[in-house]
Design a protein that fits this description.
heterodimer, A: 244 residues, mainly alpha, B: mainly alpha, 9 helices, 0% strand, elongated
Chain lengths: 244, 227
């Protein structure tokens, strides 16, 4: 186990291993996404209140879940990089940030597109929407800090500190926003009470979630491999591979 | 030469920063002026109607205090970074987090306290009911140190960068949101005659959390920035 962990820290080992995994991850993403979309968009029954427009949850909910998951991955990778000085952890953290920001943005956009027909407005200062928006700001801050520091190693460490501060803050922000909203006023927008989900709706949602997970894995590997090649461009194994 | 105790180290940093602040008095006044000017813009931009101003006041004062603190943060480590004093501080035998705490306390004393003292005046300008002014000052007293403590992390991360100012606000403002929510809410509640103990407890809890964790994070960030 520890041997594997140490080996994974070596950029060359990671590059070779991720190269083997990549087609499988990519293939699984494609299959799951097609299956989940078909099941969700065609097979699953329409909602008795929302009709067909609820089907956007098959994008929206997995994206929202991923936005938090990626932040946790990013912060954990940052901590690993800070504590054990693992090069690959830095790469994973820095490659995760734009992906996480993209998931967050996707969740916000699909949410507001759904909100227009359902709530009659694109945006409400609802607790969840607000905390998702703040999460996007946190991602953008992370990326901004990373871009501002020239030295990659320093940038990675600084960003790791920021991500860890963010992890402490996310629950606080989340609960304060929720509390702020409930204190201000009850939701004036007609909220559709969620009925217990039909199994036929739930399964495609879970499939889509797995698809998003594998999509994240695939893109993370692709980005990380690029980044590894760039960062290790002066080492023998990269030069050998390029000249081949 | 005997080694200074931890408390001596802390108070030396505090005294030094206060002396430095006193010698650059005009610079220290700028955040206060900013605070006043921003607040006086709101009646001009929104409406001079007392009722409107009254409902806006808690939020406006708090947002302005937040921005004024943000502007003043840059000076916390900047000059020490430029002249190398910060590196000496990191080389000292004492834990950096304690020295950082001294600097943060000095920052709060020279910016947080004046903002706190100016707030009642501005509250009157914005027609806030006089019952809510003690609440405003209490929230500023509890929330101000949090702003300095959390801000120190951001400054420490960006101190080595040439144009860290805008980036700093991007990093720090999202982290200020909980303080803003609880503080502004407490003041509005006080104006409406409602209980504010809950919000104040939350602010106190946040202050305790920031006081324990932020200096450590700041010290780590300084070590990274100065590598």
């Amino acid at each position: 186990m520890w041997l594997f962990f140490h080996k994974l820290g070596s950029p060359k080992y990671f590059y070779d291993l991720s190269g083997k995994f990549l087609p499988w991850f990519g293939g699984l993403t494609l299959i799951l996404m097609l299956l989940g979309s078909y099941w969700g968009l065609v097979v699953a029954p329409a909602d008795y209140q929302q009709g067909d427009s609820y089907r956007i949850i098959y994008i929206h909910v997995p994206a929202a879940w991923m936005s938090l998951f990626v932040y946790i991955v990013m912060a954990s990778a940052g901590a690993i990089g800070l504590i054990w000085k693992m090069k690959m952890a830095d790469v994973v953290a820095s490659c995760s940030a734009p992906l996480g920001a993209a998931f967050t943005f996707l969740a916000l956009v699909t949410g507001s597109l759904w909100g227009k027909p359902m709530w009659g407005t694109y945006w409400v200062w609802d607790a969840r929407l607000t905390s998702e928006l703040i999460l996007l700001f946190l991602y953008l801050g992370f990326m901004g800090l990373e871009a501002a520091i020239d030295d990659k190693r320093t940038a990675a460490n600084a960003c790791a500190v920021l991500a860890l501060v963010g992890v402490v803050n996310i629950p606080i922000i989340h609960y304060s926003v929720e509390w702020w909203n409930t204190l201000h006023q009850g939701s004036t927008v007609a909220r559709v009470d969620k009925p217990a989900m039909d199994v036929n709706m739930l399964i495609p949602l879970l499939i889509m979630w797995f698809a998003f997970m594998f999509y994240y894995g695939t893109t993370l590997f692709m980005r990380a491999r690029n980044e590894v090649l760039y960062r290790e461009r002066d080492t023998a194994w990269v030069k050998e591979m390029v000249t081949e | 030469m005997s080694e200074a105790s931890l408390y001596q180290a802390f108070s030396t940093v505090l005294k030094r920063d206060l002396t430095l602040a006193y010698r650059t008095r005009t610079e220290m006044v700028n955040p206060m002026l900013f605070f006043i000017i921003v607040i006086s813009l709101f009646p001009l931009a929104v409406s001079p109607d007392p009722k409107v101003l009254q409902s806006l006041a808690p939020g406006v004062i708090w947002v302005a205090a937040l921005l004024a603190t943000l502007l003043s943060l840059d000076s916390m480590f900047r000059s020490d970074f430029d002249d190398g004093a910060l590196e000496q501080m990191l080389l000292s035998v004492h834990p950096v987090s304690v020295l950082v705490l001294g600097k943060v306390l000095a920052h709060w004393l020279v910016t947080g306290i004046p903002l706190l003292l100016l707030a009642p005046l501005l509250a009157v300008l914005l027609h806030m009911p006089s019952d809510s002014i003690p609440a405003l000052m209490t929230t500023l007293a509890l929330g101000g140190p949090i702003l300095s403590l959390v801000g120190a992390i951001g400054v420490a991360l960006t101190v080595g960068l040439r144009r860290g100012g805008v980036l700093l606000s991007l990093l720090i403002l999202p982290l200020y949101i909980p303080v803003l929510i609880f503080a502004a809410n407490a003041v509005s509640n006080a104006a409406a005659g409602l209980a504010i103990a809950g919000q104040l407890y939350f602010l106190g809890a946040l202050l305790a959390l920031a006081l324990t964790l932020a200096p450590i994070a700041t010290a780590a960030a300084l070590r990274i920035s100065l590598r």
